[in-house]
Amino acid sequence: VNRSDVHYWGAGPAPLPTAVLEKASQVLLNYKDKGIGLCEISHRSPDANEILAHAKQTLTYLLEIPDDYEILFLQSGGSGEFSATVYNLVAIWVEKKRAKIAEEVGDDKGEVLRRLRTVVDEELKLDYLVTGSWSLKASQEAARLVGAKHVNVAVDARKAGDGKFVDIPSEDKWTLTPRTSGGGPALVYFCDNETVDGVEFPAFPHSLEGDDAPLVCADMSSNFISRKVDVRKYAVIFGGAQKNIGNTGIAIVIIRKSLLPPAVTYASADLLRELNLPVGPIVLDYPTIAKNNSLYNTLPIFDVWIAGQVMAGLVNTYGAKRIGGQEDISNEKARIIYETLDKYPNVYRVVPGNAVRSRMNICFRVHGGDADKEKAFLAGAEKKGLLGLKGHRSVGGIRASNYNAVSLEGAKTLVSYLEDYANSA
Ligand code: PLP
């Protein structure tokens, strides 16, 4: 089977542009005519630095990332960032509290610690908006690290009865930790696009805006570089590369510089231990990664190169429209697919509510979820070269992952199959 005969709708790892893979096969063997390949050269070589700088530049251009943000590359995967956001932002929160108490009580370290223990015990909160399987996992990781009592699930969108995630409750129903002066949560976390459930935030939540806005951390693993983002609203944006940006192996973090030294001090490992709070692994420590330009340890430079090439492809295609050009195409692909699904309500049912339908992961049922009919639907799709459409094992059904490397032509091929199937059903 040829690549060109197939449209792959898998949720991640996901398709990459063929032109990038063709170039990749060359650079793996021989990079820049050096006689060795890109997986073999040092991550500290000038070439590696150039690759890293290029990836940062293209991402900065595409998303218009302001100067007061830093880009980090880590090998954490998306899941590692569930932990990293907790370790790092809790360390910032604790140090802020410690400094404030020290101001009040002076040099008496024993007293500072006593008071700090009470403050941590009573006030440390991490807010989670649980709108799907991945934010649920992130909130569970936070509870595992700092203890459930410190995790405030401000939204639990699970539907009563079947426990499915199909909607985002309106903001007036959220129970965010109040923002008091000098207080508030250590972070507010949400997953911008829930890959398993097909639920995407239509826009940045209003409740997280304003002068005293909390530190917002967002998982954009499955909708990174698919639409414009007002980066300034976020403390941390992260995502695994393996959907829209590149291949498996790296995660990208965009972090506000005011959350890195020297602008801010993190609680020391000794202090965190005294407070029974977790001390994170050094490879997830944002100050360490930032200080070392993401080269604290061996970074898979090939993966960064792939990401850089994919992003450069978008820059070449859309030019001054930046990520807006990709956003238009993503929206158009999603629009024609949803429109077709909605046209045949007796055959297809989109799982999530209208207002929160993901542009990236289009989740639907065929004939009310009849197992045999969904199997037949998938088999028919495969015959047309439409692969990877099976829904996540935890929810079943069909999922079309409409990532950037799926072309408009691919979306039209899916639409045509949806039409044919519905008309013959
Ligand atoms: N977050 C989201 C939204 C995801 O879709 C995934 C994986 O599919 C992850 C996090 C976890 O990423 P990883 O497998 O790289 O740990």
UniProtKB/TrEMBL annotation:
Gene3D superfamilies, A to Z: Aspartate Aminotransferase, domain 1, Type I PLP-dependent aspartate aminotransferase-like (Major domain)
Pfam families assigned: Aminotran_5
Catalytic activity reported: O-phospho-L-serine + 2-oxoglutarate = 3-phosphooxypyruvate + L-glutamate; 4-(phosphooxy)-L-threonine + 2-oxoglutarate = (R)-3-hydroxy-2-oxo-4-phosphooxybutanoate + L-glutamate
Top EC class for this record: transferase
Leader sequence residues: none
Residue span(s) of domain Aminotransferase class V: 10-99, 120-410
SUPFAM superfamilies, A to Z: PLP-dependent transferases (SSF53383)
Gene Ontology biological process terms in this record: L-serine biosynthetic process
A cellular component annotation (GO) from this entry: cytoplasm
GO MF annotations, alphabetized: O-phospho-L-serine:2-oxoglutarate aminotransferase activity; pyridoxal phosphate binding
Cofactor: pyridoxal 5'-phosphate
Pathway: Amino-acid biosynthesis; L-serine biosynthesis; L-serine from 3-phospho-D-glycerate: step 2/3
EC number: 2.6.1.52
Record keywords, A-Z: Amino-acid biosynthesis, Aminotransferase, Pyridoxal phosphate, Serine biosynthesis, Transferase
HAMAP family: SerC_aminotrans_5
Family named by the database record: Belongs to the class-V pyridoxal-phosphate-dependent aminotransferase family. SerC subfamily.
Protein name per UniProt: phosphoserine transaminase
Source organism of the structure: Lophiostoma macrostomum CBS 122681
Species lineage: Eukaryota, Fungi, Dikarya, Ascomycota, Pezizomycotina
